[in-house]
Every structure is written in structure tokens, then in C-alpha cells.
Amino acid sequence: MGKRCGVLMAGLWAALITIAVLALPGQAQAQAREPGPPVEVTGTLELVIVEDFTRGRSELRFHILDAASDTVFELRFDRTPAGHWKTGDTVTVRGHAIGRRISVSEMNAALVEDGTLDSGPASDAGIVPASERRAVVLMVDLLDAKASSYYTLDQIASIMFTGTQSVDGLYRESSFGQLSFPGDTDGDGQPDVFGPFAINDSGNDCDYYAWAYAADDAAEAAGIDLSQYQHRIYVLPPYSKLGCTWAGVANVGGPRSWIAIANEPIVFVHELGHNLGMRHAGTLSNSYGDHSDFMGNSYSWHHLNGAHMDQMGWLAAVEGGLVNVFAGGTYDLYPVGDDAALGGLRVLKIAKSDSNEFYYLSFRQRGGYDTTLSSTYTQGVNIHRYRGSGATMTYFLRSLADGGQFEDQANGITITQLGRAPDNSYVTVAIDFGCSIGNPTISLAPAEQGLAPGETTSHTVYLSNNDMTGCPGTTFDLSASFGSDLTGSLSVSQLTLLPGETGTAALQVTAGTLDGTYLATVTAVDGDGLEPNHTGTFEAAATLMVDATAPLAPTGLNASLSGKGDQVNLAWNTAEDGDGSGVASYRIYRDAGAGFVEIGQSGRTDYADGSVAFESTYSYLVTAVDQANNESADSGMVEITTGQGKAKAKAKRKGWGKGGKKGA
């Protein structure tokens, strides 16, 4: 109840602010709309797609579930946030709040307890493995508009689970049986569609999160165990009755969907697709424009396109389901559909090197859930573009007829439809990779390095042949030059690379005796005299800072205890390094009675020591280390005594023994 109560109370507070603003004169209203007080919130990020299908528009919104208050806040940005954020990331936002909206000035990955950055799940959020997905549907009646006035539970159950065509059936067929939405998770013999649940909200604020939490509370009060479901779908009154501009809302890679147009069954499939991590299927001019894919605006039961099937991982389990094409040739493509398990090549994937994307080639025919598919998509090979992984859009580019061609001159790719079988059981396409050359790229790692006089450092040279598939290999001559007080050598003088291949070489650099900043430069030249001919020289440089002088000692070292007294928190001022190589880290030393020993390092000006005992005295020192590994004098000592073991004493008085079992 805590989360829902927090949301409802925050909603009430926002409403009171609104009422107060409307009651003020014009000048006072303008002042009241100014940014609220500064706030800092740490919690879980939730990305939400808000969709207006009628106008063909959608909006990506960001919400944060505050870990401290269990309240959901909507985040507002002056500019679109970076694309790497995803549902499930733990973040800290700073900004100004009015009600449950935060005007964000800064958003960063949150620091977790061990001091490391938490950027959320390691894989693409919401891309689920093949499995059964347990979903529950809650019908919601608001004060001024009731879903039960427009739909019945049986109608919704038919759409989701039991109908001749259903959400469950479409996902089973599109995934080749790898993903389903079974209808009776709770085992009572009936589809898991419940309600209607009347909630105390007029509905005119279009606050989908408040409605969801209120409906959850009502369902749980009715004895429904929502914890057994991975997806919660809220069926609302038609959006035209709510005064909302959106007909569907969904977490991207999250558990919730809101449906405000339940007489369009495909909306259920579409919003659940967002829950699974998919974004829209569009064209270059319309984000909903791919009508062959239920993540577009298909208006009917249709499968996913080949790119989305690859994103979901379903093609990998089908023999011949997906083939990566690296060389020109002729291929027979069989329809992607309900007979895919019978074998035969289904989808071709071709790298689009200039944009780090891929072309996807597939063949579609009418049948199963594709029975009503437009002839636009059944005449021949369909060509889509997609990043290859992650929650980004797929783009339908073109469908070829016999004799039709698709050319990508920048990447030297030509796709030609040679013809179809008389019974349309397959289509034959030819793929040709011409030789389109690209300038090679070269880099050094590390690109900056501090070192002491006479010290030797190692760098890796990375050289990439950016010619397109279809070109022959190229041999590049490598050479190195060094600043006035440096010497060094390369491990090889030539690299022979195929198109798209990256080779490496080792660069050794030795510093002289003079402090200063110097360059070590590696140059690549196409020297084999063969076509393709890459004209010019291509080079990369590493900056070497020769440094024999240690930084100044850190100042201002202080120590404090955490709330329980069982952690020492250290902080100090940034150490100065003048014209040296720059401070790289700080070393922390502790004396527990037997002399100072190093206990850790920090790249920041703070450190948390959690390895202390209660009622003990510790001394600390900090030094600064520059990039040449010169260590400063120490900061001066700080001493602190930890707190008492109150938790232990309390447990002992209560008579609890080991393993959490109460003593006799």
C-alpha cells in the first residue's frame, strides 16, 4: 500500500497546488508556476511510450520510482536525454519539483553501496528470453467514465486469451512457439481478467500511474495476488471519454500497459510489445508506417517483421531462420509465418557499415495471422533497416517485385529480386557487394599516458579497413615518429586487412630525462600498389607526459561516521599537480594500532571504509598519485573512534542466538 498511498498523496498535493494557482491573480499565477524547490531523487527509471494512434504520434516519457518515498515522479527535460537510458536503471536526478513532476537539470547513474556506478541491467532492458509470460487484465471504472459501460470481461478475455485470434495466439505463432501468454495463471479455470474496479478518480487528469496503483489496491483488496504476474494490463474507458489524447500507454521493457481503446484488439498486442522491449515499426517518414508489423499501425492481426523477430531472439531457434550475409550470392527466401518450423531460409541480415545498422530481407505470404496482409508486403522480398539489437525502431524501406532492385551505393550493396516460385512458396534474390572504398581509421590506446623519466610504456595501435564487402584486402605500411625526448619502436611494419577487418600492432615508447609533454605518432599508408587505392596518409598520436615531480599533498582530510557508527567516511580537498601529468588517484592508509597500511584507492576525493570494528580507534592518511605514478607526501593524520555495537547488545538482551533462532 505504501507506493500507492505515496502516489495518491502526491497527486492530491499536485491538485492542491493547481487549485491554489488558479485562485491567484495573473501576476501571482505566473510566479506560482516558476520552478519549485530544488530536489534530489534516487530511484528506478521507467520509460513509458504514450501513443496517439489517430494522429500517428507518440511521446517517450521518463518516470522515476523514488526509493525513499515509493512515489513515482514524471521527469521533464529541456532536451532529449541520451539514448542509453532504459527501464530498470538506477539513477539520481536533480532539479526542481512541482507536485509529482521534476524539471531535471541533471541525471546520472546512481552510486550503489559498494561505490560503483549502477547503470541497470547489463543486457537490453525488456528483451525477454523464450518463455511463458504471465499477464493479468484489470478493468477500471473511473468516477466520470466507466470501462464496464463499453466492454465486458468476456470480450477482453477473448481478445487476450480465448478467441480464435488472440494476443496469446499471435505471440505463439510469431515466436514459432517460443513465447506465449497463458490465460489462467491463478489456476481457477477462468481467464485472468478481473473487475471492474471502481477507483475514486474522475479521470480528467489522465494520470495513468495513479489509476494503476489505485486499481492494484482494489484488486489486492479483492484477494487477487498480483505478484504472480509479470504484466499488468489496465483496461480503461475509451480515451475520448477521458479527455486524454492517448489511446495506449506502455512501459518500454517494463510490466505495465494501459489500454484506452479496447475495441481495437491489436493495441493489446502492440503495448505488450513495448513491455517486451520493442519500439515502433515505421518508415522513414512515419513512425507507425510499417503496416506489416503489429508494432506499426497494422490495424489487424499480423506478425512482426524480420528485424523485430531477430531482436526478440526467435529466429535463432529456427533452422535457417537467420543468415548473416558477408559475400555476394543468390538466395531462396521462404515465407516468415506459421510454417517457419518446416525449414528453409527465412531472413537475411546484411551489415550497413556506414551507420552500424543492418538490412533485413524477408518474404511474407498470406496465411495464419497474416491472412489479411496487404499485397504491398506479399509481392516479393521486404527490406527493413534496424540497429541489430536493443530498443530502437525498425524501418520498412521497400518491397521488391520481380526484376526490382534496391541499391545502397554508399555501402556497395545491390539487392535484386530475380523471381518467385510459381506457387509463391519462395522468392529468389541476388545480393551483390561492389567495391566501395572507405578511408581507414587508426587510433592508439591509451591516447594519453604519464610516465617517469626513463620509463617505458606500451600502446596498442588499432587500424581498421573500412572498405565495403566486395573489395579485396589491402596491405598498409606502418611507421612511427617520436617527440624530441622520446624513443620507441613498432612491433610490425605492415598490416594486411580484409574489408571490415581491424588489425593491431604494439607501440613501445621510452621517455628521456626531461619533463614535458611529447607526441608519439603512428602513420598508415596504402603501400601495396594494388586496387583499391587509398590515397593519403592516416595517422594517430598519443600524448606522453614525462613527469618526475610528485603532486602536492592533499589537504583538508576529515573523517566522520555513518548513522550506525560502523563505517568511516573520509573526504579531502583536490590535490594540485601544477604542470605535471595530473592526479590519477588517491591512496588511503589506515593505522589500527600496528602502523599505517594501504587499505584502498579512490579516483575521487572521498572514500568509505566499511571494514572497521565497533568501539575502535583508527588513524588515516591520504596521498595523491599522478599519472606517472609519483606519490605525494601525506595529507596529515586524522583520528576517529567508531560507535558502540548497539545492534549486538540489543539482540543479546532479546535472547537471540545464531541463525536467527531464539534462545531458551
Structure description:
The protein is mostly beta strands and 664 residues long. A hairpin with a 6-residue loop joins strand 33 and strand 34 (568-571). The protein starts with a helix and ends in a 10-residue tail after the last helix. Residues 1-33, 112-130 and 647-664 have low confidence and may be disordered.
Nearest-angstrom radius of gyration? 31 Å
Based on Cα principal axes, name the global outline: flat
- What kind of assembly state do the chains in view correspond to? single chain
Structural class: mainly beta
Name a few traits of the molecule:
mainly beta; 664 residues; OB fold (Dihydrolipoamide Acetyltransferase, E2P)
In summary, what is this structure?
The chain folds into 5 domains: 117 residues, OB fold (Dihydrolipoamide Acetyltransferase, E2P) (Beta Barrel), CATH 2.40.50; 147 residues, no CATH class; 128 residues, no CATH class; 106 residues, Immunoglobulin-like; 90 residues, Immunoglobulins (Immunoglobulin-like, Sandwich).
